[in-house]
Amino acid sequence: MAETRLSISGMKCGGCVATVEQVLRAQAGVESVEVSLDNASAVITGQADAGVLAKAVTDAGYPAVPA
Ligand SMILES: [Cu+2]
Predict the structure, then answer these.
(1) Which residues sit with Cβ closer than 5 angstroms to ligand 1, an ion?
(2) For the domain that residue 28 is a member of, what is the CATH number?
(3) 20 alpha carbon to ligand 1 midpoint, in Å?
(4) What are phi and psi of 63, to 5 degrees?
(5) C-alpha 18 – ligand 1 centre gap (Å)
(6) pLDDT tens digits, residue range 25-58?
(7) What is the model's pTM?
(8) Ligand 1 centre from 63 Cα, in Å?
(9) How many whole angstroms from 12 Cα to the centroid of ligand 1?
(10) How many domains does the chain have?
(11) Can you give the pLDDT at residue 4?
(12) 50 close to 65: Cβ distance less than 8 angstroms
């Protein structure tokens, strides 16, 4: 099972975390999602492409890059 880590900026509260989780879970190939507000990061398992995941989160308003 592939694991992808993203560095995500702009998350300020649990609502932001929920939004990011929702966006990531909606992507094809995603098995599980763990978003950390404290670490400004996410860990995703599954076969999704890191660049695609980063773009989806960025497009939702939280600039993200593969970490
Ligand atoms: Cu928020």
Answers:
(1) 12-13, 15-16
(2) 3.30.70.100
(3) 10
(4) -55, 125
(5) 8
(6) 999 999 999 999 999 999 999 999 999 999 999 9
(7) 0.95
(8) 14
(9) 4
(10) 1
(11) 97
(12) no
Whose tokens are 């970490």? That residue is: 67
Residue 33 backbone class (left: φ over 0; alpha: ψ -120 to 50; beta: rest) = beta
Maximum Cα interatomic distance, the chain, rounded to a whole number of Å: 30
| Cα–Cα–Cα angle for 16, 20, 12, rounded to 5 degrees | 25
Residues in the chain: 67
Amino acid occupying residue 23: V
* CA separation for the pair 27, 5 (Å, rounded): 15
Structural domain containing residue 7: 3-66
Beta strands in 1-67 (DSSP E): 3-8, 30-36, 41-46, 64-66
